[in-house]
């Protein structure tokens, strides 16, 4: 254990001094250490990566608006506030991510890489089935002929109440409460086939299908409650990404060893080797989902303004695109892996803030919340209601007091004067 820690510290010192030298000696090698077949192949690979990064952000943001409305409706009915990322969560996220990343690095150094990847592959297999089913549900449902009936089902698994107790008792706990239809079963089968394909062959197309489904679901379902939380999260991960890529070999080692659909890939030698190509350009899902949930928040902010245009969403979406191009350009020039958030975070934070200053929306932008906290006015209203009820009870007591007692009290008051 101590040897591994010493190795990481030594690697930090080496990387801080060797980055320029590596760029000079790298020659025609790219970030994967392999020689790309042709310039056209590289252009195709990186262009496809950019498109695959933009699609989950765009469609995930659109779906997040619908999900936000569903959450608001449920909150109005049940009073249970939806789960969103708080500022404290955003502060802790880079620390927890660093612990997880270094933990994986230690596992790969100490234990067999193959055994760890077997466990991870099985875990992501089940996650991939659920993510793909959720993603494909509206698409496949629209393609299924109307002649096939949409039959609803309800799967529930209940714990309690104790034997002999009231069947309507509140002690019942729903461990599983899942509703689905025959269309959802079709989606599940399609997702299962794709996941099995990935499980057996680890083909890059199956990897991308699962990775894109994770990205879309992440942007749709992970909600930042306000802009301040988004700024804290992005700034924290900005430092995290720079340190683990430039400071150590931990990020690159884990990315190369980790065989799971947590990245999207595209072969640079597709034109020469076809579908059997093996020289891949890579983009991690974190570089898509983290900026994506912030861009989705801006779309919901645009909707809250009730204007015809979605200025903040589209402006930041274009800024993300430019930041991604800058990442690829610098990586190609210096022949060294780049922390994409180094370029994406300034683009995604600076654009909406500058735009808000120019349009006079800065206060609205900073004050916006997906699910606002209970306002003090409401609490004051409750206090006033309590005071009124108290006064009413006192008046009723006075009315109930006999006249003789009232006269006695008046006499006592005069004597006191």
UniProtKB/TrEMBL annotation:
GO terms for cellular component: cytoplasmic side of endoplasmic reticulum membrane; lumenal side of endoplasmic reticulum membrane. One of its GO terms (biological process) is membrane protein proteolysis. The chain crosses the membrane at residues 43-62, 91-111, 123-144, 180-199, 231-255, 275-299, 311-334, 340-358. It is a multi-pass membrane protein. Residues 372-417 are annotated as: Disordered. Its main location: endoplasmic reticulum. One of its GO terms (molecular function) is aspartic endopeptidase activity, intramembrane cleaving. Residues 372-388, 396-410 have a biased composition (Basic and acidic residues). Pfam families: Peptidase_A22B. Keywords: Endoplasmic reticulum, Hydrolase, Membrane, Transmembrane, Transmembrane helix. It comes from the Eukaryota. It is found in: Endoplasmic reticulum membrane. The keyword Nucleotidyltransferase does not apply. InterPro entries: Peptidase_A22B_SPP, Preselin/SPP. Belongs to the peptidase A22B family. This is Signal peptide peptidase.
């Amino acid at each position: 254990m101590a040897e591994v820690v010493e190795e990481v510290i030594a690697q930090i010192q080496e990387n801080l001094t060797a980055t320029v030298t590596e760029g000079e000696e790298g020659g025609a090698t790219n970030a994967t250490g392999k020689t790309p077949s042709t310039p056209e192949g590289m252009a195709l690979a990186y262009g496809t990566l950019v498109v695959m990064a933009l699609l989950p952000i765009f469609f995930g943001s659109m779906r997040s608006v619908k999900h936000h409305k569903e959450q608001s409706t449920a909150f109005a009915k049940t009073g249970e506030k939806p789960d969103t990322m708080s500022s404290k969560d955003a502060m802790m996220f880079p620390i927890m991510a660093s612990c997880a990343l270094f933990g994986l690095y230690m596992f790969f150094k100490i234990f067999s890489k193959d055994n760890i990847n077997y466990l991870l592959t099985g875990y992501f297999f089940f996650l991939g089935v659920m993510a793909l089913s959720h993603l494909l549900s509206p698409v496949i449902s629209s393609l299924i002929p109307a002649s096939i009936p949409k039959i609803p089902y309800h799967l529930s698994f209940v714990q309690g109440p104790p034997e002999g107790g009231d069947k309507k008792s509140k002690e019942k706990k729903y461990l599983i409460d899942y509703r689905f239809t025959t269309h959802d079963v079709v989606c599940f089968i399609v997702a299962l086939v794709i996941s099995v394909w990935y499980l057996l062959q680890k083909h890059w197309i199956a990897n991308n299908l699962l990775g894109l489904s994770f990205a879309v679901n992440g942007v749709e379902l992970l909600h930042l409650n306000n802009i301040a939380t988004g700024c804290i999260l992005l700034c924290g991960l900005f430092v995290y990404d720079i340190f683990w890529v430039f400071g150590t070999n931990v990020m690159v080692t884990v990315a190369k060893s980790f065989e799971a659909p947590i990245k999207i890939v595209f072969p640079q030698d597709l034109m020469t080797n076809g579908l059997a190509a093996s020289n891949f350009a890579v983009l991690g899902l974190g570089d898509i989902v983290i900026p994506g949930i912030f861009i989705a928040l801006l779309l919901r902010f645009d909707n809250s303004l009730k204007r015809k245009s979605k200025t903040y969403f589209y402006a930041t979406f274009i800024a993300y695109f430019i930041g991604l191009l800058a990442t690829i350009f610098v990586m190609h020039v210096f022949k060294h892996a780049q922390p994409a958030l180094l370029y994406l975070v300034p683009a995604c934070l600076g654009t909406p803030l500058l735009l808000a200053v120019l349009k006079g929306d800065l206060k609205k932008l900073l004050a916006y919340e997906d699910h606002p906290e209970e306002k003090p006015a409401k609490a004051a209203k409750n206090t006033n209601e309590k005071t009124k009820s108290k006064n009413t009870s006192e008046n009723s007591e006075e009315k109930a007091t006999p006249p003789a007692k009232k006269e006695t009290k008046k006499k006592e008051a005069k004597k006191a004067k």
